[in-house]
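User: Predict the complex with magnesium ion.
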Amino acid sequence: MRFSEAFINTVKEVPAEAEVISHQLMLRAGMIRKLAAGVYTYLPLGYRVIQKIEGIIREEMNRAGALEVHLPVLCPAELWQESGRWSLYGPELMRLQDRHSRQFCLGPTHEEVITDLVRREVRSYRQLPLNLYQIQTKFRDEIRPRFGLMRGREFIMKDAYSFDRDDAGAEISYQKMKETYERIFRRCGLICKAVEADTGAIGGSFSHEFMVLAESGEDRIASCSRCEYASNVEKATYAIADKEPVENSTSWLAMQPVSTPELSTVQEVASFLGVSPSQVVKTLLVLADEQILAVLIRGDQELNEVKLKNLTAATKISMASPQVVESITGPESVGFSGPVGLSGVRVVADYSVRDIENFVVGANRKDTHFINVNWGRDCPRPEFFDLRVVQEDDPCPRCQGPLKISRGIEVGHIFKLGTKYSKALQATYLDQNGEEKTIVMGCYGIGVGRTMAASIEQNHDRDGIIWPMPIAPYQVMVLPTDTTDKDIREAAEAIYQELLSAGLEVIIDDREERPGVKFKDSDLLGIPVRITIGSKSLKQNSVEIRIRKTGQVIQVLKDQCRQKVQQMVSEMLEASS
Ligand code: ATP
Ligand code: MG
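Assistant: Here is the predicted structure with magnesium ion placed in the model:
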């Protein structure tokens, strides 16, 4: 490819709309352009990366025995009503009507459509197991589309669905996909970790997310520094020690009200009373769908909404409005809720408040707290659950080693679905004995654009992108420093042709630009290997090869250039295979 014909328009300034580095660099390198919020055009350079990632995914899915299909984007509402998700999915689902007022959605994921296909096609156990996948555009009306390709409203996903005769078979399919995903991300040149995850709107019983480790990631990961345990913080737990409840103790002081005018945050109350925030019990009045709950948690801890959602089987958790709070705890009591004398609502508490004594709570009265509160004596012992967000150094639930918290970008997600969709849609088969059985399913997604963005988050420097060789838009850039110089131009052209004939993916910067401009663009674009042809080295019949990642520079004789570059490219491809 010739740069002058490649439709690459680089931009010097950092675009104001882009907060994260991958978004900035993709815009600056002329790989994507925005059409509307969360909707992007892939330009030729960007689309080459997308196709490389898709290529790796395809090879590995095919190797695992999965079969590629292409399902419609336009999905009839009836199927979604059958699974119950038409009402559950909420405003993220892009809904529309046809001219006959029939309702449809643009597929955000395809469990319904694929299960419908399989229930029509599969009759016998002989047709199972089966794994079908597609690479296709998905639509989700994200509340906050941002970070470019990372969280779009229209994006490319690889989604796969496995169908098995029984749980044991489904477990094998799941493990096979887990290994396949590990290979895919390794081959893309990414440092990625599989972590246990919540199953969210897709549902099912068990799942892993594949996280690209990067500081800018939206997800937090808890991983054990001693064993293999790793989990999304949304789901992560810790070793909870058993302890007998204390009924009464000589150390218990008498409960008393104290005036705390306008002090309603934990921090304010704790410093006013001269105690640590861990001595304060926060009372959060929460709506789990329609049900009101009082959630008690230690002042220095954070509520994990996913855990509360799972405990209550609610689809949505929100904080109760001031009106609702006052209807429960009394007039002007907002900010001063507490468990003493609380009635009419279910009270659930995090384990963090199980073993403390003489603690501080809101008094359900304006500007008042109680001090020296103790369970059983001053208010009923609540039900205790694990409801908090794990923290750095919490003991690992498997081995008690200290947990570490890091950040990651979710690029893939695999689920054991069980019979959630096959039951709802009655996808069954006849077993060896002619008995009707429900198919057991799994589903497996990879965000293709998000993988591209995550790769840049993990691989860049001040000057631009550093593509891992397997997904680079071009493997090699040939850079003649001065195209008006005949010797340089001809030497560069010869090397370019030679590399092309050797089967390498090459771009030559044939523009009549100053060398400084070309070098800057070449760093920005992040092509892994660059060959510079300039007058000085040419006089010694040599050229310069530079590795984008390490900055390492070597001089080679012009005649040996092809061989050397070919060797470098294959080494860099093999490093991640
Ligand atoms: P998130 O929690 O980030 O919203 P999700 O759990 O909703 O992701 P899945 O339903 O598991 O995502 O989708 C499978 C994969 O599709 C994700 O792992 C991610 O790589 C990708 N993906 C999901 N939503 C988006 C989006 N809005 N833009 C780009 N990629 C996405
Ligand atoms: Mg999502």
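DSSP finds 15 helices and 31 strands in the chain.
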